[in-house]
Amino acid sequence: MSEVSPPAVAVVGAGSIGVAWAIVFARAGHRVALYDLDAGRVAAARPEVERRLAELAGFGLADAEALDLVTATADLGEALAGAAYVQECVVESLEVKRELFAELDRRTGPEVVLASSTSMIPCSRFADALPGRARCLVVHPGNPPYLLPIAELAPAPFTAPDTVEHARELLSAAGMVPVLVGRENEGFIFNRLQGALLREAYCLVRDGVATPADIDLVVGSGLGRRWSVLGPFATAELNTRGGIERHAEVLGPAYARMGAERGQHDPWTPDLVARVAAEVHAALPPEDWAANVERRDRALMRLEQARRADPESFRGFSRTS
């Protein structure tokens, strides 16, 4: 244990994401002030944290005593007092975020990082006019972040590099997995990928190809299980002898036709495939292909073993559970 206590954190917005962030930070030893305008939410927040921490503790994923580090308040000044990092978790409204970040900028010192949990809105749209805009960025989590550790760091062009680094260090120390979004866009990485799947899912239902239940089944019992072990590029590398280049050669034209059917023309050009392959092969060398396939399969075996050992935990999410 470090002799230096982790810095205090203010979580602004005590809805489901705010409560989840409070758990992430308290579990890592941060003193957390959880703020909301709604007195009802303030009253409910700490019991929610307690309930979820107890569940996590039952799986060895948290210490229930982390609750002692969490306070809930309807006083924003009280929440911000002493905080080195602020995680905003209010409604997905551009106007609300503009007003709130202006207030956060006025009421905190220049060294305090101001991060938004927004799912879609680039930082430039709500923090561009602030005197302290250099300390603002988006830190978008998966939901719930105490179980999905990914955290997208999406700075604006005006965000200071030190701000990004401070956020990265704090989140890494809290057990999160920060990923830098290289350029501002709507939806960042997580929701761009999720949106692509959802758009196609809705089209397949509309076109009579599959029911919603069938699509959830294909993802829950197929794609999702595999993606819990490795991502789409690593999947392509290990699914085809010859690796990702061979996968693109064989299946790329079909995927291009599928995209064109939806009005999208984004073919996998040879230079793009080569660029992706170079990075994939740095982590998964082609000479280790067979060993990596075996490692993937063992990971999936362990997941299936866990499902079979406790089928009730998964029942209701898939027709085959």
From TrEMBL:
Domain 3-hydroxyacyl-CoA dehydrogenase NAD binding: 9-183
Pathway as given in its UniProt record: Lipid metabolism; butanoate metabolism
Major enzyme class: oxidoreductase
InterPro entries: 3-OHacyl-CoA_DH_CS, 3-OHacyl-CoA_DH_NAD-bd, 3HC_DH_C, 6-PGluconate_DH-like_C_sf, 6PGD_dom2, NAD(P)-bd_dom_sf
MF-aspect GO terms: (3S)-3-hydroxyacyl-CoA dehydrogenase (NAD+) activity
Family annotation (Pfam families): 3HCDH, 3HCDH_N
Keyword Iron-sulfur found: no
Alphabetized UniProt keyword annotations: Membrane, Oxidoreductase, Transmembrane, Transmembrane helix
EC number(s) reported in the record: 1.1.1.35
All copies of domain 3-hydroxyacyl-CoA dehydrogenase C-terminal, residue ranges: 187-254
Transmembrane segments: 6-26
Protein origin, superkingdom: Bacteria
Similarity comment text for this entry: Belongs to the 3-hydroxyacyl-CoA dehydrogenase family.
PANTHER family documented for this protein: 3-HYDROXYACYL-COA DEHYDROGENASE FAMILY PROTEIN (PTHR48075), LAMBDA-CRYSTALLIN HOMOLOG (PTHR48075:SF1)
Protein name from the UniProt record: 3-hydroxyacyl-CoA dehydrogenase
Organism: Actinoallomurus acaciae
